[in-house]
Design a protein that fits this description.
Number of strands: 0
Distance between the termini: 33 Å
Shape: elongated
Helix content: over 70%
Number of domains: 1
Structural class: mainly alpha
Strand content: under 5%
């Protein structure tokens, strides 16, 4: 499969490889796709949670919303650390 990403992304990928952060352009692309896949899985889980809550006639309390938001923020911080 050949993929055209455009000049901006080519330069970005090249810079990551030149900096030694990745061994190859393929490695950069795989990491990017892994992150997209991870995000899509999280969105799917969130949608399923919302659908289940709505099916239950569910309403979330302020505390539940705050707890979910805190967990989401903490997970993002842990990934970026």
């Amino acid at each position: 499969m050949n993929v055209s990403v455009g000049k901006h992304w080519e330069e970005f990928i090249d810079s990551l490889v030149k900096q030694g952060r990745y061994a190859s352009a393929t490695e950069v692309m795989r990491e990017g796709l892994r992150l997209v896949e991870e995000r899509e899985a999280k969105l799917k889980a969130l949608r399923e949670t919302i659908e289940a809550s709505l099916a239950e006639g569910g309403e979330l309390t302020d505390e539940q919303v705050a707890a979910e938001l805190r967990a989401h923020v903490e997970a993002r911080r842990a990934r970026s650390a």
